[in-house]
Amino acid sequence: MPLSPKQKEEVIKQFQTTKGDTGSPEVQIALLTERINRLTGHLKDHQHDTHSRRGLLSMLAKRRRLINFLGKINKKRSSTIEKKVGIKDDTKNKN
Fold first, then answer.
1. Which of 29, 35, 49, 76 is the least buried, fewest Cβ under 10 Å from its Cβ?
2. How far, CA to CA in Å, does 51 sit from each of 25, 32, 35, 45, 55?
3. Global pTM value
4. Which of 61, 72, 75 is nearest to 29 (CA)?
5. What CA–CA distances, in Å, run from 68 to 9, 15, 21?
6. Distance CA 34, CA 29 (A)
7. Tens of pLDDT along 34-72?
8. Could you state, in order of their start, the residue ranges of all structural domains in the chain?
9. What is the CATH T-level fold of the domain 5-89, as seen in this structure?
């Protein structure tokens, strides 16, 4: 379930840190999140597709590793990208 080049370009433009940036952790996390969301929808219709489920778990692990890496470098960038792509909900901590 790859992204079309146009969709990929839109995600890159939205999350790039500088002009021409395609490989920063923010862009990689955003692209993985988009693929994860699409694959999750596919798996709702095809529950017995174990090969795709394995790929999904692999993508989730890779995204988590990228977020952890970014958190070691810069906590603020890490938390910002998590909120932006919808991984973390900050409303829980505002009590």
1. 76
2. 26, 17, 15, 14, 6
3. 0.88
4. 61
5. 25, 18, 20
6. 9
7. 999 999 999 999 999 999 999 999 999 999 999 999 999
8. 5-89
9. Helix Hairpins (1.10.287)
